[in-house]
Amino acid sequence: MKIYHTNDIHSNFDFYKKASAYIIENKNDEDLYLDSGDFADLSNFIVQADRGQSALELAFSFKLDAMAIGNNELDLGYDAISSLVNKFPLLSANVSDGSGNLIEGLKGSIIIRKNGINFLIVALSPYFNSRFKAGAYNTFLKNGNLITTDPYEAIERELEANKGKYDFLILLSHSGLWMDEIFIKKYPQIDLILGGHSHNVWIDKQYSQSGRGENLGIIDLSLIDKKLTIKDIDHKYLKDSENTKFDEIYKAKTDLAIKILSQEITAIDSLSYEPYEECQLINFICDSILAEMSGDLAIMHNGIANNSLTKPISRLTLLDTIPSKLNPTKYKVKGSDILKAVILSQDQDYIRRPTSGPGFRGKIIGDLSFSSNVKIQKDPLIITIDNKKLDPEKEYTIVSHDYIQRGSIYPSLKTENKNATWHKLFIRDLMEKHLNNESIFNKSLIKRKISK
User: Fold this and answer.
1) How many angstroms separate the most distant Cα atoms in the chain?
2) Of the candidates 224, 241, 257, which is a domain's last residue?
């Protein structure tokens, strides 16, 4: 028999069309198909439209037996998760609501019987980051009234509850390769780990993780005298293929999502965009997040957007313009660190670099923009905030987003999570709230950068 495996598809439905076509053609009733999570990404309009319902209906239309809940599914929030776990075999042994209570209907494991063998499948969601910080994802997950908990306790709880009930143990782990390597050593009773989250292309004698929705994992098992062993683990790169069933379902979900998201949002006017120079759209974002969270100034990189926001505006056009899953973030930095960021942003080669990272769904770094109370004279470089010259020694409270806060593109603006606070809405959601705010719209027209 075979186990087919995917992970971290991130709503790459082009890949899933190929994967599901292969599954339809090759998977028989005694095979398993498992996914290690992050199938549904909120940067995709189908996921955004009905909080994952349509995306998971698509996923489970193609012989998928179970899916671990990844952090991208958790981004959907408590209301969505508590509904979805009662409709689909979504598993996680270490997810609870924001107060640590169990979620009704959510299972930590499932037993599936194939070929007379009882497969115990235990699933985990991310808790430790790559630096092994406990609860590293909960700062953001709490915005959606969810948290993850200690995976070791979760594994041991599931093993105890299922003692004597299974023949072959599979850990469906959206924990990252750094944790999976520990699980392999700590729990020798685990027969196979199917990993995700860290986007590694990695195969070992008991392990498979197939990148970021780019390969189909195939685990070949040998069954002799009711004894099951792993014969081979491989990754298959899939070519384009016909898949009429997928096309029909995908079209129906696309049409539904467009209908849901296309309702016009009242807005004062369109907002123009330029990636490498000051523009009205990013000015508007800066003034919106500063008004919402308060602080000394707002800082935003232009790469947060893809294009101008043109009337008529809807949630669909907002998603297309700003696909990133980033929250407005408030924290303190020294004036000297702001100065370093401004100087770096004047390097035209640098701001044209491609960039990627957690939550960011854009393509480039882009220019660095500011709220309307900031003035930057380029030659000679003079920065003022509320008509006062930037003080290199002073601590300023800035409002930006978590990608910048982590130091991903402007290292001088980095601070630890413990020193920051986050708005529960994504930037595009907060923008929607202010599109009819005449005061902020007028501020977005104010120039912040002058030559001299």
Assistant:
1) 83
2) 257
Answer yes or no: do 109 and 194 share one domain.
yes
Q: For residue 169, what are the domain limits?
A: 2-257
Task: Find the angle CA(302)-CA(387)-CA(347) to the nearest 5 degrees.
Answer: 35
Residues 11 and 112 in one domain: yes
Measure the CA–CA gap between 254 and 266, rounded to whole angstroms: 24
Amino acid, res. 6: T
How many alpha carbons fall within 13 Å on the CB side of residue 84?
28
Q: Domain check: are 272 and 252 in the same one?
A: no
Q: Please indicate, yes or no, whether residues 291 and 240 belong to a single structural domain of this protein.
A: no
3-class secondary structure, 16: helix
Measuring CA to CA, how many Å separate 266 from each of 138, 431, 432, 438? 34, 12, 9, 12
Residue type, 144: G
For residue range 340-368, list pLDDT tens digits in order. 999 999 999 999 999 998 889 999 999 99
Q: What is the pTM of this model?
A: 0.86
Same domain, 40 and 173: yes
Tell me if residue 188 falls in helix, strand or coil: coil
* Residue 312 CB neighbours (<10 A): 12
Place of tokens 């992050």: 38
The reply to whether 24 and 52 lie within a common domain is yes
Q: Which tokens is 125 given?
A: 């969601």
- In tens, the pLDDT along 83-136 reads 999 999 999 999 999 999 999 999 999 999 999 999 999 999 999 999 999 999
Is residue 291 domain-shared with residue 186, that is, in the same domain?
no
